[in-house]
From TrEMBL:
Protein name: DJ-1/PfpI domain-containing protein
Domain of life assignment: Archaea
Segments forming domain DJ-1/PfpI: 3-165
InterPro entries in UniProt: C56_PfpI-like, Class_I_gatase-like, DJ-1, DJ-1/PfpI, Prot/Nucl_acid_deglycase
Protein's organism: miscellaneous Crenarchaeota group-1 archaeon SG8-32-1
PANTHER family, per database record: PARKINSON DISEASE PROTEIN 7 HOMOLOG, PROTEIN/NUCLEIC ACID DEGLYCASE DJ-1-RELATED
Signal peptide residues on this chain, from the entry's feature table: none
Gene3D superfamilies: 3.40.50.880
Gene Ontology cellular component list: cytoplasm
UniProt similarity note: Belongs to the peptidase C56 family.
């Protein structure tokens, strides 16, 4: 079974995090939500989530993808955690899918994996990509090799579907798109 790791830090963006977990589970992907701590974690808008595990209890070799939700101060908490940076670096080096949305592509930039890569980020934060050598694009979802980035809460559904397509295949992603009625939206 295909497996993905989703990080969870205080100040996470709720729309992004829940959409990613929900869509990928609908696609049959085994998701582990790993918190920077193994406690209830408060989102940016005071919605609480309980991680499946602490980041201390996960091993990258058990996953095919790493997903980094945004939110503020969630992305700041992730970028300041050396465990997160190390996992992202290793995932990229191991050619696993590395995906980030909203402000979280800044975490990928800090990890040094965006050099020469097309990517996107929350509008107005493009300098975060450029400082890591990333090439900012205006698209709502950008895929460059094993890196997938997206702009923010409203783009969480197409972002998650793109990850599902990479991990579970086009047919399964299309089925999830239709069952969630995402196929009637224009993006």
């Amino acid at each position: 079974m295909v497996k993905a790791l989703v990080f969870l830090a205080t100040g996470f963006e709720e729309i992004e995090t829940v959409t990613i977990v929900d869509v990928l589970r609908r696609a049959g992907i085994d998701i582990t939500v790993a918190g920077l701590t193994f406690n209830v974690i408060d989102g940016a808008h005071e919605i609480k989530m309980v991680p499946d595990k602490s980041i201390e209890d996960v091993k990258l070799e058990n996953f095919d993808a790493v997903v980094v939700p945004g939110g503020s101060p969630g992305y700041k908490n992730l970028r300041e955690d050396p465990r997160v940076i190390d996992i992202i670096k290793e995932a990229f080096k191991s050619e696993k899918i590395v995906a980030a949305i909203c402000a979280a592509p800044a975490v990928l930039s800090d990890a040094g994996i965006l050099n020469g890569k097309r990517c996107t980020i929350y509008p107005g934060m493009e300098d975060e990509l450029e400082k890591g050598g990333g090439i900012p694009k205006p698209d709502i979802v950008v895929v460059d090799g094993n890196i997938i980035t997206s702009k923010g809460p409203a783009t969480a559904l197409p972002f998650a579907l793109r990850i599902a397509e990479k991990l579970a295949g086009k047919q399964i992603a299309e089925s999830v798109r239709e069952k969630t009625l995402a196929n009637i939206l224009k993006w």
